[in-house]
Design goal:
Chain lengths: 137, 137
């Protein structure tokens, strides 16, 4: 099957769930995922991988607990990128909502390898496949 | 040193060279690169890696020579993504110019592992570091 380009806007319009990433494409053994987020995620850490964030729309803040810098918060306006280093506890938050794009190894859990209790509004997953529209339809 | 979020607009404004990717951040052993492109790249293939494209601005077309589908061209408007599978010869073109984001293993050559003659306007490189502005300035 040949692949076609995917519009991120259309892909984002194909689902409504918050904090529940969709896999838009794969690059070797990495996923490119998109997610709609609003409110608070949870404190968690990925022990074996960095995690890349690109803000497609809205604004994301990420609270970080870093070995040297201690606890701080970074703000990502639309069109900005940030990589959370492996092992660093972090908590993404989007008070007014945001759409984000993530790069991370296939199989990476949204809640990391260690985390606080998972609230109901956060989907503990390795990402869902995007529901692809039929190009013949 | 702590990392700060990077604005893609500011990063793109920090250089003028065409077809000469800048590395904005690293994710494990992968680079996130951005490039300004206008006109034609060259036919090339990456034997050992897929290559991910996201169009930040403008429009990119990618000519492909695929084993089954043969030669075809995909068009990526602003805000769309596409992954060129490993081994597939491809030639990106942007007649009216575009800004793109790439995700690929650190060390990946812009001209691939096999390619036609490299024209003067294409930078054969594994990416350049972004000239980072001093946050204290």
């Amino acid at each position: 099957m040949t692949q076609e380009p995917i519009s991120l806007d259309k892909a984002l319009a194909s689902f409504t769930e918050q904090w529940s990433p969709r896999i838009v494409t794969r690059v070797n053994d990495y996923d490119v995922r998109i997610a709609k987020v609003e409110g608070e995620h949870l404190w968690h850490a990925h022990e074996h991988t960095d995690e890349f964030f690109l803000v497609i729309d809205g604004e994301l803040t990420i609270a970080l607990r870093e070995p040297e810098a201690g606890e701080r918060t970074v703000t990502l306006p639309k069109g900005s990128v940030f990589t959370v280093p492996r092992g660093v506890e972090h908590k993404p938050t989007a008070p007014s909502g945001a759409s984000i794009l993530l790069f991370e190894p296939t199989g990476t859990l949204t809640v990391g390898d260690r985390h606080e209790e998972v609230p109901d509004h956060v989907d503990a997953t390795t990402g869902h496949d995007l529901a692809v529209e039929d190009p013949e339809a």
